[in-house]
Amino acid sequence: MKRMSYLLLVLLVLVGGLVGYVRFSPNEPAAWHADPLQVTERGADNSFLAAPGGDVAPLHLALPPDQVAARLEKIAAAWPRTKAIAGAGFHRTWITRTKWWGFPDFTSVRLVPTDDGGTDVTLFARSRFGRSDLGVNRARGQEWLARLRS
Asked: Structure pTM?
């Protein structure tokens, strides 16, 4: 019985250490502020790219970039556990943490003005840890694009 208690205590300390590491490890904004148009390598199982050569093409909107940026700010501000960590204007990066563990995911967006007065929205959503995110970044990226479209 004493040995089982000891093993349980060791397990709890290890899990607590892992949670602490994930939740409190520094996320340097410069390291995660990516330009979706410049992405060449990514974890295909834990990322989503809306850019030329990505999972989907950029979203084209018939609105000027400043209006799209304002809509995007509202979408990100309303998204749970999400805050801006880098950039301004037409190129921003947000961090979103998972509910229970606090795993950090990053979403970088670049808005590109087009000749017709509209905007192409490029987006790169990805995980910091792990190889699979169970589709969380894809779902967030697609939802942000859908909300911008509507």
From this structure: 0.88
